[in-house]
């Protein structure tokens, strides 16, 4: 009897360990560990009008994030080695929008500060950054809540809750009609400390088209 039980549990453990890891999503040939190039002329013409400086044309994808917005829409985020991410919004298989985001800054938030940040520093009618004023792009007086599943190069998968608001400012240019600003208060459970790691992430970005991107 004991030997039979040992065989059963050994089989169960073997089955669990051999279960396939979840596969990171892909689109436009972009994948975890892959790379892509953004049209260098597009960057050269757009950058003087934007907050970002020194944007690279060539990018290596170091992580892939997925956000399910509703049953049909989702965001895929390809985090790069250039302190940014390429975000693609999908409706089913159709690409609705592509935005190249760059992190402006990231600040740790203590537990006592968390509620204050959520209530006062994310959703506003206007947001000032480097002498530029951005207008609220999404409607509402409270942050939009997203949950992102992120696939990492080491095979691990993490989840982050994000409390966000997007802003925009118009730019009088055919090359880059507007600049976007994303304010995101984020928390992720840390199993080591048995507590949440919290950050306020500010990013600026601008829209791209499929023809501006080439996977390598």
Detailed description of the structure:
It comes from Vibrio ostreae. Pfam families: DUF2491. InterPro entries: DUF2491 (IPR019621). This is YjfK family protein. With 216 residues, the chain is of the alpha+beta class. The chain is built from three helices and twelve strands, in the order H-E-H-E-E-E-E-H-E-E-E-E-E-E-E. It has helices at 2-17, 40-46, 111-120; strands at residues 35-38, 58-68, 73-80, 84-91, 94-108, 126-129, 132-136, 144-152, 157-170, 178-190, 195-208, 213-215.
- Give the H and E element order: HEHEEEEHEEEEEEE
Query: N- to C-terminal separation?
Result: 57 Å
Taken from the alpha-carbon principal axes, the silhouette is globular
Largest sheet: 8 strands, antiparallel, barrel
Protein name: YjfK family protein
Organism: Vibrio ostreae
InterPro entries: DUF2491
Explain briefly what this protein structure is.
The protein has helices spanning 2-17, 40-46, 111-120, and strands at 35-38, 58-68, 73-80, 84-91, 94-108, 126-129, 132-136, 144-152, 157-170, 178-190, 195-208, 213-215. With 216 residues, it is of the alpha+beta class.
Helix-strand layout with pairing:
Blueprint: H1 2-17, E1 35-38, H2 40-46, E2 58-68, E3 73-80, E4 84-91, E5 94-108, H3 111-120, E6 126-129, E7 132-136, E8 144-152, E9 157-170, E10 178-190, E11 195-208, E12 213-215
Antiparallel strand pairs: 1-2, 1-12, 2-3, 2-8, 3-4, 4-5, 5-11, 6-7, 7-9, 8-9, 9-10, 10-11
Pfam families: DUF2491 (PF10679)
Protein name: YjfK family protein
């Amino acid at each position: 009897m004991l030997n039979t039980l040992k065989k059963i549990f050994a089989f169960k453990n073997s089955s669990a360990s051999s279960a396939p890891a979840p596969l990171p999503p892909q689109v436009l040939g972009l994948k975890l560990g892959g790379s892509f190039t953004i049209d260098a002329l597009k960057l050269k013409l757009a950058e003087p009008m934007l907050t970002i400086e020194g944007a690279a044309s060539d990018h290596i994808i170091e992580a892939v994030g997925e956000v399910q917005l509703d049953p049909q829409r989702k965001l895929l985020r390809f985090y790069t080695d250039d302190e940014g991410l390429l975000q693609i919004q999908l409706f089913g298989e159709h690409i609705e929008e592509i935005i190249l985001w760059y992190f402006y800054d990231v600040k740790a938030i203590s537990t006592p500060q968390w509620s204050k940040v959520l209530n006062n520093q994310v959703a506003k009618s206007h947001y000032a950054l480097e002498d530029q004023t951005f207008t609220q792009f999404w409607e509402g007086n409270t942050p939009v809540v997203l949950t992102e599943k992120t696939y990492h190069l080491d095979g691990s998968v993490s989840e982050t809750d994000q409390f966000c608001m997007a802003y925009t400012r118009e730019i009088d240019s055919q090359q880059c009609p507007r600049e976007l600003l994303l304010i995101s208060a984020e928390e992720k459970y840390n199993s080591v400390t048995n507590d949440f790691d919290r950050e306020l992430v500010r990013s600026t970005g601008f829209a791209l088209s499929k023809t501006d991107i080439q996977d390598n």
